[in-house]
Amino acid sequence: MYLIKLSNNVFYTRISTPVALQTSLGYPREIRLSLLTKHRRLASKRNSQLSGVIHTLYEQALTERIPYASFKMGLDAKVAKVRQQFTSNLPNVDNLQSNFTVASIQVKTKVQPAPAPAPAPAPAPAPAPAPEIIVNSSMVGKQELITELNNFIHSKRLEQVTPLTLTQLNQRCTNFLDYLAKQDIW
């Protein structure tokens, strides 16, 4: 049994499945379940509760050769019971954040009157089109590239790209074309 913390800071329990169940009955390599907390102390307590349930079910599956589908239904039911205990014991837990959360919810329910129905939100106005910046150039080749750039920006506008993105795209491409002109590359 392992206690792991994922990138969203929620703790999970990870328990390897016995090899006999994996090979003969098609069980997965491991079972990973959320402990529904971001606090290590609480997670370790919940981990011990859930792992006991899972190990008991594994022993039963080994002796009775229970197929994985039946095992999964039994596991889901037992995990739901254990998780119900998690939430029913929440105010008694030595987790300060959960106590404050419960207290703040109770205060909010006493203070707030029934919410009035909100009016339908007005549709957002269409974004203003980004200005097309045409760079003056005396060279015919550069003028062709600028025309192509303007066509490209126009196609992006038709794809409904945001005005800021259009402006940035136009500016960066124009700067690159100016750089090429200074380097005498084209």
Structure commentary:
With 186 residues, the chain is mainly alpha-helical. The protein folds into 2 domains: 2-100, no CATH class; 140-183. The chain contains 6 helices and 3 strands. The protein has a 3-stranded antiparallel beta sheet, with helices on one face. Helix 2 (40-64) runs antiparallel to helix 3 (68-88) and helix 5 packs antiparallel against helix 6 (163-183). The termini are far apart. The model is unreliable at 91-111 and 133-138 (pLDDT under 50).
Return residue spans where pLDDT drops below 50 for at least 5 consecutive residues: 91-111, 133-138
- What is the number of domains? 2
Task: State the end-to-end distance.
Answer: 65 Å
Percent range of helical residues:
55-70%
Q: Quote the beta fraction.
A: 5-15%
Q: Characterize the main sheet.
A: 3 strands, antiparallel
Assembly context of the chains: single chain
Secondary structural class: mainly alpha
Order of helices and strands: EEHEHHHHH
User: DSSP helix count?
Assistant: 6
